[in-house]
Amino acid sequence: MTQHVPPAAAIASATPSRRLFLAGSASAAGALTLGFHIPFAGDAAAQPATAPEVNAWVVVKPDDTVVIRIARSEMGQGTLTGLAQLVAEELECDWSKVTTEYPTPGENLARKRIWGAMSTGGSRGIRESHQYVREGGAAARAMLVQAAANGWGVPASDCRVEKGVVTHSGSGRTTTYGQVAAAAAKLEPPAKPALKDPKDWRIAGKSVQRLDTVEKTNGRQVYGMDLKLPGMMNAAIKASPVFGGKLVSFDAKAVEAMPGVKRVVKVGEDAVAVVADTWWRAKSALEALPITWDSGPNAKVSSESIMAVLKEGLDAKEAYVGNKAGDAGAAIAGATKRVEAVYGYPFQNHATMETMNATALYTPDRCEVWTPTQNGEGALAAAAEASGLPPAKCEVYKIHLGGGFGRRGAVHDWVHQVVAIAKQMPGTPVKLIWSREEDMVQGRYHPITQCKMVGGLDEKGDLVGMTMRISGQSILASVLPQNLQNGRDPVTFQGLNPSGPEASIGYSIANLTIDHAMRNPHVPPGFWRGVNTNPNAIYLECFMDELAHAAGQDSLAFRRKLMANHPKHLAVLNAVAERSGWGTPTKPGVGRGLAQIMGFGSYVAACAEVMVSPEGKLTILRIVAATDPGHAVNPQQIAAQVEGSFVYGLSAALYSECTVKDGAIVESNFDTYPVMRMDEMPAVESILMPSGGFWGGVGEPTIAVAAPAVLNAIFAATGKRVRQVPLKNADLRRV
Question: With b meaning 16 or more CB within 10 Å and e meaning fewer, what string describes 44-73?
Answer without folding.
Answer: eeebeeeeebbbbbbbbeeebbbbbbbbbb
